[in-house]
Design a protein that fits this description.
By secondary structure, the chain is an alpha/beta fold. The chain folds into two domains: 326 residues, Aminopeptidase; 84 residues, Immunoglobulin-like. The chain is built from ten helices and 17 strands. The strands form three sheets. It has a ten-stranded mixed sheet, sandwiched between helices. Strands 14-13-16-17 form a four-stranded antiparallel sheet, with no helix packed on it. Helix 2 packs antiparallel against helix 5 and helix 5 packs across helix 10. The longest helix has 16 residues. It is globular.
């Protein structure tokens, strides 16, 4: 077997048993003539925002117990589905959801409400009994962006606003939760406190604070597929201590330049206030530091329980006052800022300079891999750098480098994965107070 897995193999694997289960199922479907065949995906058309609102209206509400917790096998299957969706492998997605999650349906959706763009829409058909949420993939996308809506019933108009930002920025992926954040009475195992549900903790139906969920899996799939892509987590607030829009990178103070650029772009349009976590001005406390999607993007080895000390800048947490969410005339300022600062994938010249992280790791290649992969370390100034490999529990499994790296002279390193079990691993480079993290999927 070669170093890198083939195009149709699993990219997200946490355990060997889960991988064998999924591969066995795919093999069975192939034998039966389902997987890999030219599957006929249903085609529908309509206003995308109307479709999103229809999905929202079917969601189980508060105290409904409408969220069905996922098993480990469910998680393995959804990792494969999310990966296949991002690869536009519609036949694989359709085969897996038909065989394993028949409540879900994949359709090819044409948005007649704006620009006739085409999307793969993966949703649970009503009545909703599982409450896992909705994924929408734009086919002719322009920007490596995921728009995420974790509280569609609790935070008014975030679904339609998020859907509109998604389509008007030509983003790649839209992720929306499937129930009210207080739908279930059981508590999330993830840390953090909240008064939202009345008992001081987050609940298992809160997708911003749960890792064992389709919502989290889709976010992780996007982050791995687009390591320089931006994830926008859209929220609503009514706190008078928060500006019209309050931005963070999922940390109380470590806010990267992209936030200040977005702020300045929006302020230039007038009639709006923007706050940033750690800017020394805003007193808004809603910085999203316990958000599990943000923790994952920021390099946490255990997003459910492990906070981060610094950020990458690629997770953007946006708290918005109600009047922003209600009006295209207002949130269009956000749209214009995103379009002005995050370059189109078709642009010949990048429109924005990435933040200087001091230490930077390249994307591993090949990835996924079986026996070895490689990374390159670059630094903005000559300094001592430590490069390590960790498993998902935060245990170090290899030390690749511990010494000086010279500015202007990239350091190439090989990661020997031959003795590692199948699963997800993290390569972390740290030095000069900055950290850069990449993820490796090992397949055996």
């Amino acid at each position: 077997m070669g170093q890198c897995a083939s195009h149709n193999e699993i990219r997200f694997v946490i355990g060997s048993l889960g991988r064998l289960l999924v591969l066995s199922l795919l093999l069975l479907l192939s034998v039966l003539g389902v997987a890999g065949a030219a599957t006929e995906i249903p085609e529908i058309s309509g206003d995308l925002l109307g479709e999103i609102e229809s999905i929202r209206s079917d969601m189980p509400g508060r105290d409904s117990e409408g969220f069905d917790p996922l098993t480990g096998e469910d998680m393995d299957l959804w990792r494969t589905i999310a990966s296949a969706l991002l690869e536009e492998e519609a036949g694989t997605v359709d085969s897996l959801v038909t065989a394993c999650f028949p409540k879900y349906q994949l359709v090819l959706f044409t948005d007649t409400g704006l620009d006739s763009a085409e999307y793969y829409l993966l949703r649970e058909t009503p009545p909703v009994t599982r409450g896992w949420g909705t994924l929408i993939l734009r086919l002719d996308y322009e920007r490596e962006i995921a728009i995420e809506v974790p509280h569609p019933l609790f935070e008014t108009n975030t679904p339609s606003e998020g859907g509109d930002i998604f389509r008007r920025t030509s983003a790649r992926l839209f992720i929306m939760a499937g129930t009210h954040r207080c739908a279930n009475s059981s508590h999330s195992p993830c840390d953090g406190t909240s008064s939202v549900c009345g008992d001081g903790v987050y609940h298992v139906s809160d997708m911003a604070h749960l890792t064992e969920a389709v919502y989290q899996v889709a976010h992780e799939a996007f982050t791995v597929s687009y390591p320089d892509g931006y994830s926008f987590s859209l929220h609503g607030t009514g706190r008078d201590t928060c500006e019209d829009i309050f931005l963070s990178n999922g940390h109380e103070s470590d806010s990267r330049q992209i936030l200040y650029d977005l702020r300045d772009h929006m302020l230039a349009s007038g009639d709006i206030t923007i706050g940033i976590a750690g800017d020394g001005v805003s007193s808004c406390p809603l910085h999203g530091s316990t958000n599990t999607q943000g923790r994952y993007t920021n390099g946490s080895f255990a997003p459910c329980s492990q906070s981060v000390s610094s950020t990458t800048g690629f997770f953007i947490h946006a708290e918005q006052q109600r009047y922003v969410r209600d009006s295209l005339a207002v949130y269009s300022k956000f749209i214009d800022a995103i379009k002005g600062l995050i370059p189109s994938i078709h642009a010949g010249i990048p429109q924005v300079t990435r933040p200087d992280f001091g230490v930077c790791l390249s994307a591993p290649h090949p990835n996924p891999c079986t026996t070895r992969t490689g990374v390159t370390v670059t630094v903005s100034r000559t300094q001592s750098v430590r490069v390590e490999v960790f498993d998902p529990l935060g245990h170090r499994v290899a030390l690749l480098h511990d010494g000086e790296v010279t500015a202007g002279r990239p350091l190439s390193l090989e990661v020997n994965t031959g003795e590692l079990s199948s699963g997800l691993y993290f390569v972390r480079a740290s030095g000069g107070g900055t950290v850069s993290t990449r993820r490796i999927t090992v397949l055996k």
